[in-house]
Amino acid sequence: MTEGPLSGIRILEVGTMLAGPYATMTLADLGAEVIKIEPTTGEISRQVSDAYFASLNRGKRSMCLDLTVDDGRRVLGELVADADALLVNLKPSAIHRLGLTYDALRKYNEKIVCVAITGYGLNAGDDPAFDYVIQAATGVAALTGDPAGPPVLPGYSSADNSTGLTAALGLLAQIISGRGGQIDVSLRDVMLSQLNYHASAYLNDGVSPVRRAGGAHSYYVPAQMFPTSDGHIALFITHDGFWRSFATEAGIDGFWQMAERAQRREEVLSVVTSTLATDTAENWEKRLKPLGVPVAAVRTLPEALAETPEVVVEAGGARTVRCPIAVSDYVPRYRPAPMLGEMPTPHSLVE
């Protein structure tokens, strides 16, 4: 085992709940030293559950600082002087008030990279911007669910998780540049960016995205969820080779070209739906996967974890899902989430 690719990188985190802590935990998994700065009462997600906190904070160290007082800000300056980056996700007004920006901290370290995760931008105000609110505000919810029913929110925090990874990328990009500076990442902009081809179709061709049954793709047909005789299955046919393999196994004749399938969408979906109803989701997966057809029967999370035990790791007694980034010749040390204030502040360290 070698050192992680981010060994020697020190990152300070003033984060809450999900987006910020997930970003820095991923960096910690890759070898960075992450110091989580918390109030004496602890970061709020400690109150959710031990498992929740562990899932976002393994491998970090915790230091308690009161950033609302001069002494706390002085200690923060000492930490910044010896750090590579500071990642924050708070309201913009709090970030500015507590001096957690590059302009406020560059006097301690010209090369410090300051990353701010906010709802709408560092200078865009304090409107509440939780994950589900952003999904509703950016069009994600409007595209999700059955077209005959109400908009639906995905069952997990897609905006927070996506923003955390985006912020981690921005942080590393600026560190690699060798320059300090301010990185501004908002949940709103990340989700609008991830609606890429939908946004492009509207901006360039005036085509507004619509909610389709089964979560159907805008361009590929068939590419969506289908009911079977027992359970549901996701089928994702993106080119004619996949279609030939699927159609031959399913006993469907015709629709051999992608353009034809798109033009005759409803006919294709009718035939595919009736055909898939003749067997179970489990059996269709067994029949189609060996042919290379992109397909999966719908599983619950417990079922998925049972099938992939290798992704489950233990960090100080808490079982979590491993880092998704596999680096050759490196296996992360999954250390537990920190006890509150376990790391002494610089001025109390013994020389």
TrEMBL record:
Keywords: Transferase
Domain of life: Bacteria
Transmembrane segments: none
Name of the protein: CoA transferase
Catalytic activity, EC: 2.8.3.-
GO terms of molecular function: transferase activity
Lineage: Bacteria, Bacillati, Actinomycetota, Actinomycetes, Mycobacteriales
Pfam families with a match to the protein in the record: CoA_transf_3
Alphabetical list of InterPro entries matching this protein: CoA-transferase_III_domain, CoA-Trfase_fam_III, CoA-Trfase_III_dom3_sf, CoA-Trfase_III_dom_1_sf
Signal peptide range: none
